[in-house]
Design brief:
The protein has two domains: 30 residues; 267 residues, paralog of FGE (formylglycine-generating enzyme). The strands form three sheets. A six-stranded mixed beta sheet has the order 1-2-3-6-12-7. Strands 10-9-8-11 form a four-stranded mixed beta sheet. Strands 4-5 form a two-stranded antiparallel ribbon. By secondary structure, the protein is an alpha+beta fold. The protein contains seven helices and twelve strands. It starts with a helix and ends with a strand. 21% of the residues lie in helices and 16% in strands. GO terms for molecular function: formylglycine-generating oxidase activity.
Amino acid sequence: MNGFAHCLSLVLAALVLHVPLARIAALASDAPVPALSMPTKESPSPLNLRLDRPLSRPEELALAPLDRFKECEHCPAMIVVPGGSFTMGASADESGSTADERPQHQVTIRSFAVGRFPVSRGEWDACIIGKGCSFRAFDTSNRRSEPVTDIEWSEAREYVEWLSRATGRPYRMLSESEREYVARAGTKTAFWWGDSFPIDRGRERQVAGPSPPLPTMFDFGPSLPNPWGIYEVHGPVYDWVEDCWHDTYKGAPADGSAWIEGDCSRHVLRGGSVSRAVQTRRAAARIWFGSSNRMHYMSIRVARTLQP
């Protein structure tokens, strides 16, 4: 198939299936593995293990950074995040930064796996069918590949607990430091592509507002993945993370773990929404809501602990 025909086929698939073009292109670029032979450390990377079953211990130990896998038919597509250290937070001279993003501090992250996308409506429905999730997401568009939204923190927690039971593997919520680490993907700018956001200037000062019409709610920001192959880290939704809210980073963990001490009636969200200011979508930006709040931009992106 020539290049024009290939592009046309992707557009037609997106229109017929009501699936965002970025996701169709991402899936089309993930060529299936010809055979399920046991991967080794010498295997070309990244691997793409479309197993639709839990990884065996040898398969898990053989994973390398940026390898991809999927452990059940309705499980999120995962990618292996390299371990490393980074500077968390933002300096006072970063445009739009706030005092709660300081002091900047070094955090060391152990390698783990993260969802390439926020959890989709279709993936959430599998949890409902499996009796693990009680909340039925609002959905008038029938676009099952779009992020699930309107969920509370406790419901996000229910999803990862169900996913762990369903696969027998340690799925969990991201910690706040892990979420910033994967958003940055080794970069040091406000957004992974640079310091400015490609958005209409008229929206730049918008802080909050009514839910946008569903057909355009997810038409947001660059459709390309960041340098680690992770999509939608600056929106269109915010991901609940495990951490309780703290007004500053004084005393924050430096090992990538979640900060779950103090007042946990409020929890942190990271990401972005078309109904909030551009500054709140930066890699270092953080917002909080009460654990029982439900908003149209609240979602979840899963993490999975890997064997050392």
